[in-house]
Design goal:
alpha+beta; 4 helices; Berberine/berberine-like domain-containing protein
Length: 147
């Protein structure tokens, strides 16, 4: 997103409110990370944007759905606000993408096609894709967890 101190503070407040709603979860350790990217870091960061993410952990598997739902709803809500304010960017950093997010959607179509070709050449049986969740270039949302 484009930097905006007021919006960033509002995002922090919304995150804090959301985390307060799940604060009773055992072993909850939430973080709200802002990554400031210099224009020289990558082509995507030429506008000196800020990448933001939530990194949240917890102890018990029975809390998975509650935490994941909270974080997904919050992420989508804040991204929507940033879109309305003209601050949002469509780029999703693949290494930090949520399981419901399509990190490939922000890539140029010709790059995705080239990745498919390379995958076809070096992994024709799709072994890497099957053994690692994420990275499926054939579908919108990349998730192979539990396969």
């Amino acid at each position: 997103m484009s930097p905006d101190p007021t919006v960033l503070y509002t995002m922090y407040q919304a995150w804090k409110t959301a985390i307060d709603q799940i604060a009773d979860i055992a072993g909850l350790y939430p973080t709200f990370v802002l990554n400031i990217s210099p224009g020289s870091a990558a082509r995507v960061a030429q506008t000196n944007g800020i990448g933001w993410q939530f990194s949240t952990g917890w102890v018990n598997a029975e809390d998975d759905l509650r935490v994941e739902t909270c974080i997904r709803q919050l992420t989508e809500h804040l991204h929507g606000i940033n879109q309305q304010n003209g601050l949002a960017r469509d780029f999703i950093y693949m290494g930090d993408a949520g399981e419901w997010q399509d990190a490939f959607a922000g890539f140029p179509a010709e790059n995705v096609q080239r990745m498919r070709e390379i995958r076809g050449r070096y992994d024709p049986l799709g072994t890497f894709t099957r053994l690692n969740w994420g990275g499926d270039l054939n579908s919108g949302v990349e998730l192979h967890k539990g396969e």
